[in-house]
Specification:
321 residues; Alpha-Beta Plaits; single chain; alpha+beta; Ribosomal Protein S5, domain 2; 37% helix; four-stranded antiparallel beta sheet; seven-stranded mixed beta sheet; 2 domains; 11 helices
Protein backbone atom coordinates (compact mmCIF):
# COMPACT_ATOMS: atom_id res chain seq x y z
CA UNK A 1 0.00 0.00 0.00
CA UNK A 2 2.85 2.41 0.82
CA UNK A 3 4.43 1.86 -2.58
CA UNK A 4 1.05 2.45 -4.23
CA UNK A 5 0.35 5.89 -2.74
CA UNK A 6 3.94 7.01 -3.20
CA UNK A 7 3.93 5.94 -6.85
CA UNK A 8 0.95 8.21 -7.42
CA UNK A 9 2.96 11.18 -6.12
CA UNK A 10 6.12 10.49 -8.13
CA UNK A 11 7.10 13.62 -10.03
CA UNK A 12 4.62 15.91 -8.29
CA UNK A 13 5.92 19.18 -6.88
CA UNK A 14 4.76 21.91 -4.55
CA UNK A 15 6.06 25.36 -3.61
CA UNK A 16 5.55 26.68 -0.09
CA UNK A 17 6.24 30.16 1.27
CA UNK A 18 6.83 30.55 5.03
CA UNK A 19 7.53 33.74 6.99
CA UNK A 20 10.21 34.54 9.50
CA UNK A 21 9.13 34.93 13.09
CA UNK A 22 10.23 36.55 16.31
CA UNK A 23 9.50 34.66 19.53
CA UNK A 24 9.32 35.59 23.22
CA UNK A 25 8.74 39.29 22.44
CA UNK A 26 10.23 40.12 25.79
CA UNK A 27 8.19 38.65 28.62
CA UNK A 28 6.44 35.94 26.59
CA UNK A 29 9.18 33.34 26.94
CA UNK A 30 8.40 30.26 24.81
CA UNK A 31 4.73 31.22 24.38
CA UNK A 32 4.51 34.35 22.21
CA UNK A 33 5.52 34.95 18.61
CA UNK A 34 4.86 37.19 15.65
CA UNK A 35 5.30 36.46 11.94
CA UNK A 36 7.54 38.89 10.02
CA UNK A 37 7.69 39.96 6.40
CA UNK A 38 10.74 37.96 5.37
CA UNK A 39 10.09 34.62 3.71
CA UNK A 40 11.69 31.37 2.66
CA UNK A 41 10.29 29.71 -0.44
CA UNK A 42 10.82 26.01 -0.90
CA UNK A 43 9.96 23.87 -3.91
CA UNK A 44 9.96 20.12 -3.48
CA UNK A 45 9.49 17.39 -6.08
CA UNK A 46 8.81 13.77 -5.16
CA UNK A 47 11.42 11.35 -6.46
CA UNK A 48 9.70 8.08 -5.67
CA UNK A 49 12.44 5.67 -6.58
CA UNK A 50 15.72 7.53 -6.25
CA UNK A 51 17.39 5.25 -3.73
CA UNK A 52 16.64 7.75 -1.01
CA UNK A 53 18.70 10.52 -2.55
CA UNK A 54 18.08 14.13 -1.61
CA UNK A 55 19.02 16.76 -4.18
CA UNK A 56 19.20 20.21 -2.58
CA UNK A 57 19.94 23.61 -4.06
CA UNK A 58 19.89 26.78 -1.98
CA UNK A 59 19.79 30.40 -3.11
CA UNK A 60 20.28 33.04 -0.42
CA UNK A 61 20.63 32.38 3.29
CA UNK A 62 22.11 28.99 4.12
CA UNK A 63 23.77 28.48 0.76
CA UNK A 64 26.68 26.10 1.22
CA UNK A 65 25.60 25.31 4.79
CA UNK A 66 22.35 23.37 4.70
CA UNK A 67 22.73 19.62 4.51
CA UNK A 68 21.49 17.24 1.83
CA UNK A 69 20.30 14.64 4.29
CA UNK A 70 17.42 13.71 6.54
CA UNK A 71 18.63 15.96 9.34
CA UNK A 72 17.66 18.94 7.20
CA UNK A 73 14.71 20.56 9.01
CA UNK A 74 12.63 20.81 5.84
CA UNK A 75 13.10 17.10 5.15
CA UNK A 76 12.32 16.24 8.77
CA UNK A 77 9.07 18.18 8.60
CA UNK A 78 8.19 16.73 5.20
CA UNK A 79 8.76 13.12 6.16
CA UNK A 80 7.24 13.44 9.64
CA UNK A 81 4.02 14.83 8.18
CA UNK A 82 3.88 12.18 5.46
CA UNK A 83 4.48 9.49 8.05
CA UNK A 84 1.74 10.88 10.29
CA UNK A 85 -0.73 10.87 7.42
CA UNK A 86 0.18 7.69 5.55
CA UNK A 87 2.52 5.60 7.67
CA UNK A 88 6.18 4.73 7.26
CA UNK A 89 7.84 5.87 4.05
CA UNK A 90 9.73 3.35 1.92
CA UNK A 91 13.51 3.59 1.93
CA UNK A 92 13.66 4.44 -1.76
CA UNK A 93 11.88 7.78 -1.57
CA UNK A 94 13.93 10.85 -2.40
CA UNK A 95 13.37 14.55 -2.90
CA UNK A 96 14.48 17.33 -5.20
CA UNK A 97 14.43 20.53 -3.15
CA UNK A 98 15.05 24.12 -4.18
CA UNK A 99 15.21 26.81 -1.48
CA UNK A 100 15.17 30.58 -1.90
CA UNK A 101 15.84 31.84 1.60
CA UNK A 102 15.57 35.36 2.99
CA UNK A 103 15.56 34.43 6.68
CA UNK A 104 19.02 34.70 8.29
CA UNK A 105 20.20 31.62 10.15
CA UNK A 106 21.23 31.66 13.80
CA UNK A 107 19.83 35.16 14.38
CA UNK A 108 16.64 34.48 16.34
CA UNK A 109 14.30 34.93 13.38
CA UNK A 110 12.84 31.45 13.19
CA UNK A 111 14.77 30.05 10.22
CA UNK A 112 14.64 26.51 11.61
CA UNK A 113 10.92 26.71 12.35
CA UNK A 114 10.22 28.13 8.90
CA UNK A 115 11.98 25.19 7.26
CA UNK A 116 10.15 22.68 9.46
CA UNK A 117 6.76 24.27 8.81
CA UNK A 118 7.49 24.42 5.09
CA UNK A 119 8.14 20.68 5.07
CA UNK A 120 4.96 19.89 6.99
CA UNK A 121 2.79 22.09 4.76
CA UNK A 122 4.38 20.74 1.59
CA UNK A 123 3.71 17.16 2.65
CA UNK A 124 0.11 17.92 3.55
CA UNK A 125 -0.44 19.61 0.19
CA UNK A 126 1.13 16.77 -1.80
CA UNK A 127 -1.14 14.29 -0.01
CA UNK A 128 -4.29 16.30 -0.65
CA UNK A 129 -4.69 17.91 2.78
CA UNK A 130 -5.37 15.07 5.23
CA UNK A 131 -3.81 16.89 8.20
CA UNK A 132 -5.71 19.69 9.93
CA UNK A 133 -3.92 22.81 11.15
CA UNK A 134 -3.69 21.59 14.74
CA UNK A 135 -1.99 18.39 13.64
CA UNK A 136 0.45 20.24 11.41
CA UNK A 137 1.36 22.52 14.32
CA UNK A 138 1.80 19.56 16.67
CA UNK A 139 4.19 17.88 14.21
CA UNK A 140 6.22 21.04 13.63
CA UNK A 141 6.39 21.93 17.32
CA UNK A 142 7.46 18.38 18.15
CA UNK A 143 10.43 18.70 15.83
CA UNK A 144 11.30 22.22 17.02
CA UNK A 145 10.94 21.42 20.72
CA UNK A 146 8.72 24.43 21.46
CA UNK A 147 5.75 25.94 19.61
CA UNK A 148 6.29 29.72 19.56
CA UNK A 149 8.15 30.15 16.26
CA UNK A 150 6.37 27.26 14.58
CA UNK A 151 2.94 28.65 15.49
CA UNK A 152 3.75 32.12 14.15
CA UNK A 153 5.25 30.69 10.95
CA UNK A 154 2.27 28.43 10.31
CA UNK A 155 -0.55 30.77 11.34
CA UNK A 156 0.82 34.26 10.77
CA UNK A 157 0.04 37.33 12.85
CA UNK A 158 0.60 37.58 16.57
CA UNK A 159 0.28 34.14 18.17
CA UNK A 160 -0.06 32.89 21.73
CA UNK A 161 0.82 29.20 21.99
CA UNK A 162 1.49 26.51 24.56
CA UNK A 163 2.30 22.82 24.48
CA UNK A 164 -0.26 20.60 26.20
CA UNK A 165 -0.47 16.91 27.02
CA UNK A 166 -2.38 16.33 23.77
CA UNK A 167 -0.73 18.74 21.36
CA UNK A 168 -0.40 22.51 21.04
CA UNK A 169 -2.98 25.19 21.78
CA UNK A 170 -2.56 28.33 19.70
CA UNK A 171 -4.57 31.52 19.32
CA UNK A 172 -3.70 34.17 16.77
CA UNK A 173 -4.74 37.75 16.10
CA UNK A 174 -3.95 40.21 13.36
CA UNK A 175 -1.17 42.67 14.07
CA UNK A 176 -2.17 46.37 14.06
CA UNK A 177 -1.89 47.77 10.54
CA UNK A 178 0.67 50.52 11.14
CA UNK A 179 3.05 48.49 13.29
CA UNK A 180 6.57 47.99 11.94
CA UNK A 181 9.51 45.97 13.23
CA UNK A 182 12.95 47.56 13.05
CA UNK A 183 15.51 44.76 13.17
CA UNK A 184 19.19 45.04 13.92
CA UNK A 185 20.63 41.75 12.62
CA UNK A 186 24.21 41.25 13.82
CA UNK A 187 26.75 39.33 11.81
CA UNK A 188 27.30 37.35 15.00
CA UNK A 189 25.31 34.14 15.23
CA UNK A 190 24.04 32.75 18.50
CA UNK A 191 23.17 29.12 19.09
CA UNK A 192 19.73 28.55 20.63
CA UNK A 193 21.22 25.71 22.67
CA UNK A 194 24.00 27.97 23.95
CA UNK A 195 21.57 30.72 24.90
CA UNK A 196 19.31 28.25 26.72
CA UNK A 197 22.27 27.03 28.74
CA UNK A 198 22.68 30.60 29.98
CA UNK A 199 19.30 30.39 31.74
CA UNK A 200 19.02 29.45 35.42
CA UNK A 201 17.11 26.44 36.71
CA UNK A 202 14.93 28.65 38.93
CA UNK A 203 13.99 32.33 38.93
CA UNK A 204 12.92 34.69 41.71
CA UNK A 205 9.21 34.72 42.53
CA UNK A 206 8.93 38.48 41.96
CA UNK A 207 10.42 38.14 38.48
CA UNK A 208 7.96 35.42 37.53
CA UNK A 209 5.02 37.52 38.74
CA UNK A 210 6.32 40.57 36.86
CA UNK A 211 6.51 38.60 33.62
CA UNK A 212 3.01 37.20 34.08
CA UNK A 213 1.67 40.71 34.46
CA UNK A 214 3.59 41.95 31.42
CA UNK A 215 2.29 39.14 29.22
CA UNK A 216 -1.30 39.54 30.41
CA UNK A 217 -1.31 43.29 29.86
CA UNK A 218 0.58 43.07 26.58
CA UNK A 219 -1.66 40.43 25.01
CA UNK A 220 -4.84 42.09 26.23
CA UNK A 221 -3.59 45.41 24.91
CA UNK A 222 -2.80 44.02 21.47
CA UNK A 223 -6.20 42.32 21.33
CA UNK A 224 -7.77 45.71 22.08
CA UNK A 225 -5.67 47.42 19.40
CA UNK A 226 -3.47 49.22 21.94
CA UNK A 227 0.01 48.97 20.47
CA UNK A 228 1.39 51.11 23.29
CA UNK A 229 1.08 48.07 25.58
CA UNK A 230 4.11 46.65 23.77
CA UNK A 231 6.09 48.83 26.17
CA UNK A 232 4.99 46.48 28.97
CA UNK A 233 5.11 43.24 27.02
CA UNK A 234 8.70 43.68 25.87
CA UNK A 235 10.13 44.16 29.38
CA UNK A 236 11.45 40.77 30.50
CA UNK A 237 12.93 39.49 33.75
CA UNK A 238 13.14 35.75 33.05
CA UNK A 239 15.58 35.27 30.18
CA UNK A 240 17.07 38.50 28.78
CA UNK A 241 19.04 39.42 31.93
CA UNK A 242 20.76 36.03 31.90
CA UNK A 243 21.37 35.94 28.15
CA UNK A 244 23.14 39.29 28.40
CA UNK A 245 26.15 37.45 29.80
CA UNK A 246 26.61 35.75 26.41
CA UNK A 247 25.66 38.84 24.39
CA UNK A 248 26.49 41.93 26.47
CA UNK A 249 25.80 44.45 23.70
CA UNK A 250 22.10 43.72 23.28
CA UNK A 251 20.78 45.41 26.48
CA UNK A 252 22.41 48.65 25.33
CA UNK A 253 20.65 48.34 21.97
CA UNK A 254 17.30 47.78 23.67
CA UNK A 255 17.73 50.78 25.97
CA UNK A 256 18.73 52.98 23.03
CA UNK A 257 15.68 51.93 21.00
CA UNK A 258 13.34 52.69 23.90
CA UNK A 259 14.96 56.06 24.48
CA UNK A 260 14.51 56.78 20.76
CA UNK A 261 10.76 56.32 21.19
CA UNK A 262 10.20 52.68 20.21
CA UNK A 263 6.88 51.26 21.36
CA UNK A 264 8.85 48.30 22.68
CA UNK A 265 12.20 46.61 22.14
CA UNK A 266 13.54 43.16 22.94
CA UNK A 267 15.85 40.36 21.94
CA UNK A 268 14.31 38.39 19.08
CA UNK A 269 14.05 34.78 20.17
CA UNK A 270 17.37 33.71 21.61
CA UNK A 271 19.18 36.34 19.51
CA UNK A 272 21.22 37.70 18.05
CA UNK A 273 18.67 40.00 16.35
CA UNK A 274 17.34 42.94 18.34
CA UNK A 275 13.76 43.97 17.50
CA UNK A 276 12.09 47.32 18.10
CA UNK A 277 8.46 48.13 17.35
CA UNK A 278 7.27 51.48 16.03
CA UNK A 279 4.23 52.80 14.17
CA UNK A 280 5.55 55.84 12.29
CA UNK A 281 8.19 56.81 9.75
CA UNK A 282 9.68 59.23 12.27
CA UNK A 283 9.90 56.39 14.77
CA UNK A 284 11.66 54.17 12.26
CA UNK A 285 14.23 56.89 11.56
CA UNK A 286 14.93 57.50 15.24
CA UNK A 287 15.29 53.81 16.08
CA UNK A 288 17.54 53.17 13.10
CA UNK A 289 19.81 56.03 14.19
CA UNK A 290 19.90 54.71 17.76
CA UNK A 291 20.83 51.22 16.58
CA UNK A 292 23.58 52.56 14.30
CA UNK A 293 25.08 54.68 17.07
CA UNK A 294 25.17 51.95 19.72
CA UNK A 295 26.42 49.34 17.27
CA UNK A 296 29.28 51.63 16.24
CA UNK A 297 30.19 52.41 19.86
CA UNK A 298 30.33 48.69 20.64
CA UNK A 299 31.91 47.55 17.35
CA UNK A 300 28.91 45.34 16.67
CA UNK A 301 28.67 44.66 12.96
CA UNK A 302 25.25 44.07 11.46
CA UNK A 303 22.50 45.30 9.17
CA UNK A 304 19.18 47.01 9.79
CA UNK A 305 15.96 45.84 8.18
CA UNK A 306 12.50 47.32 8.55
CA UNK A 307 9.73 44.80 8.00
CA UNK A 308 6.00 44.61 8.48
CA UNK A 309 4.65 41.96 10.81
CA UNK A 310 2.93 39.49 8.51
CA UNK A 311 -0.65 38.44 9.13
CA UNK A 312 -0.44 35.62 6.57
CA UNK A 313 1.22 32.42 7.69
CA UNK A 314 2.62 29.61 5.57
CA UNK A 315 0.96 29.31 2.20
CA UNK A 316 1.15 27.25 -0.95
CA UNK A 317 1.87 29.43 -3.94
CA UNK A 318 -0.81 29.49 -6.65
CA UNK A 319 1.32 27.74 -9.28
CA UNK A 320 2.38 25.00 -6.87
CA UNK A 321 0.97 21.88 -8.54
Amino acid sequence: MVAHWLAELDGRRVIVEVPASSANLGAGFDCLGVALGMVDRVEVEVRGWSRGQIELTVDGEGRGELTEDRDNRFVRGLEAAMGAARGELPEGVGWRIEMRNEIPMGRGLGSSAAATVAGVVAANTLLGGPLDTATQLRIAAGIEGHPDNAAAALLGGFVVSSATSTGVEALRMDVPRDLRAVLFIPERRLSTDLMRKALPGTVPYDDAVANLGAVALGVAGLAAGKSDMLSRLTVDRLHEPYRAAAFPEFPKMIVAAREAGALGACLSGAGSTILAFTDSMAGITRVEAAFVAVAADNELDGVIRVVEPRNAGAKVLPAAL
